[in-house]
Predict the structure.
Amino acid sequence: MLLYCPKALAARLAALLVATLLFGCFPAMAQEKDPAAAHPIMVPNPAADLWRAVRQREAPAVGMTQVQGVETGVLIDSSGEDFRNFRRQDFIGNAAIFIGAFAALILVFYFTRGCIKIPGGRSGKLIKRFPDIDRTIHWFTAILFIFQALTGMILLFGRFVVLPVFGQEAFSVIASACLEGHNLFGPLFLIALFLLFTRFAAKNIPKRRDLTWLRRGGGAIGEGHVSSGFFNAGEKIWFWAVIVLGLTVSISGLILNFPIFGQGRETMQLTLIVHGITAVLLTAGSFAHIYIGTIGSEGSLQSMTTGYVDENWAEAHHDLWHAEMMERGEPVVDQRKEKQEIPPMNAAPDKA
Amino acid sequence: MSIGEFVDGPFWYFSAAVFVIGVLWRLIGMLTMGSKRDLSVARASGSAGAIGINITRFFPRRDFWSRIKLQVVAGYLFHVGLFVLLFFAAPHIEFYRERVLGFGWPALPEWAFIVFAEIAFLGLLLLILHRMMHPVTRMISSRGDYIGSVLLFLVMLTGCLALARSHESLRILHFFLAELLLLYFPFSALMHTFTFPFSRGFMGAHYGRRGVRV
């Protein structure tokens, strides 16, 4: 009967509460005084120790493994995370600033200087400048370069530019396609460089007069045109830059593309940075090359599309080559005469 | 029906049918066209001339070599590369086994596939550019020549972009372009794939019968 008495029940519950509080507080108080007494039996977490052992922050822990290969004894290497952070936070941002600034500089130059016109306008007389094979090799290199540059830029900046626009799924498809295409066309670019070198190297050997051209800033920056042969100093610098940077970007690309020759993580990371820097330099340089070859200089593009240049263009930009051609008696195609002499195929028959 | 199902299903059957019927139609038409009977006394065997020219035309004439080496080298690179890709790439053999023939054959390893893809692209790009750059070739090229070349390039390109085989959409894009190529094939100069032995043979027999060595 006592058990069911409400007063007795309340008293018992109060006693239980007090006891709980007392027992709950005393160990805590004791712990403050003597920490060892709080955990009389230390149970180390084996998983935590293992994690600390493999997740070395200072240097990778190298273990033994049956698997033979480069760095197969390393379970986790923190340098990979450091490199990833460097690539994402420092390299990509600076690369974007550099390319953007270079493009802006060219735009500013275009709006201040404008297109360099042919002095005296077009004469209508054409001189052969590039044979078909040279133009084929040039455009072969150009197509490969543009493809590599576009796919490379998507791989470099895509996470920040393409992903927010197209979403994760589409970006995954685009990035996968770009990577495959980039890896496939990379070796072809090396072949293009070889062909370019064999056809153009002889004409790009530096000469003393190139120093004068450089001192006077070429025709674009200084006053008036400066004498030059088949290629001027600016063109020669671009050619050798393409060869040297192109070789660097191609060889580094091959090292990245074929990680089967014992390249370790550090080698791959360093190679990726070298590959990225040279690719960014080449891309920025190509902006200048494309600009001066198209909207920057009247009559220049024609040399690579038809193979011919206007005589006035040749005299103004490459006077020494023009004089040499005249001395050798190279044929000059007079467009105006040809138009007069050869009637169009659909012309009406002469009634007279 | 999704785009993928359409490309894999009805559009595939339609393009394959157009390709097979179109190629047969043109070949049968060409072979049954006949020619005026040659009443002259044969000086030599026409058949020998036909067979001979089919072989000798694989090699460039020495007199022309310096002027046509780019076309010859690029032509061989492209055709050999394309042949190997078409018949010895693992995904293609898998496709023939599952969808066309019911049987397959050993495929090339991945690295060899890559090498032949590089070779084919090198050849095709040089051939397209030569067509555009060389004044005579440009003059005799029709719009169809460019369409065929560019379509072929796109089929090869999308095939290589889908190499990772991790995205169905890339495979469908490649397959769709390949189907467009099948549709275009019988009505274009790409028919030379099948007609070249006959055209060479006709010319070889014509001259061979007259005792002319070509």
In short: Chain A has 13 helices and three strands. The domain at 122-138+202-337 of chain A is CATH 1.20.950.20 (Fumarate Reductase Cytochrome B subunit).
